[in-house]
Amino acid sequence: MREDIDTSPQRDAEAQEGSLFAWPRFELDYTVEPYDDAPDLYTFYPHDASDEEIITQWVSADEESLVDVTAVR
């Protein structure tokens, strides 16, 4: 292989829209379960999910585990 060829995948979502390296885009809704003696619990699920789909298409995280997505991009 030639050494002058850049074979590293580009991770720029804007430049790679529609490619395998693009950031996925989808809308989420969430609920917050507040606790007095523990961090609040956030549960995320797809925006367009039916009540039946929400049962299997969700993820929860403690408030302490969440970060601003713009801070890690």
UniProtKB/TrEMBL annotation:
It comes from the Archaea. InterPro entries: DUF7511. Pfam families: DUF7511 (PF24351). Residues 27-73 form the DUF7511 domain. This is DUF7511 domain-containing protein.
